[in-house]
Structure formats: structure tokens, C-alpha cells
């Protein structure tokens, strides 16, 4: 496996950990300020994770 793919996989794992922290806030009793910020960050991280997954797929297709 190339170093590039390995780096992308590590980045993906890190972003999943970060996303999970915001998911925990969303699952907790509602605090509107925290929930709104967590929703935004969750979506931002999910978009980033999906972009990394596309990059991994692109690297493995070559």
C-alpha cells in the first residue's frame, strides 16, 4: 500500500474520531447552542470524511 493511501486512511480515522465527539453532543440532552454548533461541525467533518474516501478510492483505482 502506498504511503499516500496510508496517510489518507490515517486522516480518515482521525476525522471519524473527531466526528464521534460531536455525535455524542448531539445524542445528549438538548442544549441549543451546543447542538447547533455540533450539527454544523458534524456535517463539516462528514463531508471531509467522504472527500477523503473518494481520494482513497481514486488512489486505489490507479
Word description of this protein:
- The mean pLDDT is 93.
- The protein is mainly α and 62 residues long.
- Helix 1 packs antiparallel against helix 2.
- The chain is built from 2 helices and no strands.
Give a brief rundown of this model.
By secondary structure, the chain is mainly alpha-helical. 89% of the residues lie in helices and 0% in strands.
Structural class, judged by helices and strands? Answer: mainly alpha
Number of domains: 1
Radius of gyration in whole Å, from Cα? 14 Å
Which assembly state applies to the chains in this document? single chain
Order of helix and strand elements from N to C terminus: HH
Name the helicity range: over 70%
Binned strand content: under 5%
Give the N-terminus to C-terminus distance in angstroms. Answer: 12 Å
Uncertain runs: none
Helix tally equals: 2
Dominant shape = elongated
Average pLDDT number: 93
Tags for this entry?
62 residues, mainly alpha, 0% strand, elongated
Amino acid at each position: 500500500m502506498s504511503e499516500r493511501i496510508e496517510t489518507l486512511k490515517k486522516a480518515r480515522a482521525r476525522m471519524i474520531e473527531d466526528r464521534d465527539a460531536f455525535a455524542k453532543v448531539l445524542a445528549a440532552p438538548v442544549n441549543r447552542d451546543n447542538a447547533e454548533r455540533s450539527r454544523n461541525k458534524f456535517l463539516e467533518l462528514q463531508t471531509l470524511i467522504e472527500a477523503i474516501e473518494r481520494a482513497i478510492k481514486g488512489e486505489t483505482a490507479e
